[in-house]
Amino acid sequence: LKITPRVIHPGVDTRFWGAVTSSREHVVEFRARLGLPAEGRLVLSTGPVTPQSGIEWFAREVLPRLPDDVRYIVAGARPDGARSPIFDDPRVVPSEVRLQNETAALFYACDLLAVPNLPTPDRPSGYCMDAARASATGLPVLLADIEGCADTAVNLGLRTAPPGDAAAWARTAMEMLAGREGPDRAPEPWVLVAYHYLQVYREVCDLPA
Fold this sequence. Notes:
By secondary structure, the protein is of the alpha/beta class. It has eight helices and six strands.
């Protein structure tokens, strides 16, 4: 059996995640709806607060290097339900957003999505779906240059910073916050991803295109 190796990246529902891209002027409305600070620049991280996600590391090491008007929005919690000490910092704002439509609003309300994953033995970082969804809405995304996060960045033309390098993260985040640097390209819709899989099946089964 001879087939051409290829990588098929996940897609997103671009009809949903791109549906309100033109409504950036309603940032104040989104922030009010979600209970977020009305003023200042908001850096967002989503997902579980674990050592691998790097969220606590970002709050401790990167946030103090950013200007005072920058707030860190964390839409996630520790898996064991314990309260993270990072929320003692008034610049770190917890978000209870969990539903898909609220997550979309969260992307529009914030100024940068940070995915600061750290190396974790035997637990490689996977492809970052929230980065793909956020990029579909036009939100700038900064990912750790590691494993699946790096793959996401290459696929979507997103910025990266070395994992665990607080100075580099702060510098790159400030560049992106100052210039509102969006993604190079949008993720593919699921219907196109399905077509890619269909092409592989046709090749494997020797079916006509």
